[in-house]
Predict the 3D structure of the following.
Amino acid sequence: MTDTPTPPSNLTVSAKVDAYLKMYEAQMVNYRATVQIEWRVTIAAWTLLTAISYGAVHENIRLPGYAWVVLLMAPAHLTWLLMIHASEDADKALWVRFRTEALRLLENVKESREAGTLPHGFGVWTRRSLLRHLGWLWAEFGMTLLLTVLAWQLLRRP
């Protein structure tokens, strides 16, 4: 793993702040793009499962036709969610670090070397708690699981 990027040490404080803010903004753009990709893939998975369910009801599609899609959707989507959430967490840790360094330089706040840690008093909503993280994961995956079970039940009807 590589170290967090930092501006060259020979820059003025103002130039360092500008550099950190540019890195912060770039990381935020990357984070937002990752979130958009996450939701596009999630909605595509839900749409596919819904289309298969529709086909089972209205087009008389039955097993084994789309069984492999239905059986693989839940584990594939869960794997995708775990990987994309890890990427989002890494992006967020970097942009929080860049913002923290800029604030430290501007406000002479005690330096923190742990990536993603904010100076005292900046709130607790800067890092996902395990419960909050699992809540979002379960909300997304729970819908996939529900749609998967529904599609499977509809496909196996006589």
Observations:
- The chain has one domain: 13-155.
- The radius of gyration is 22 Å.
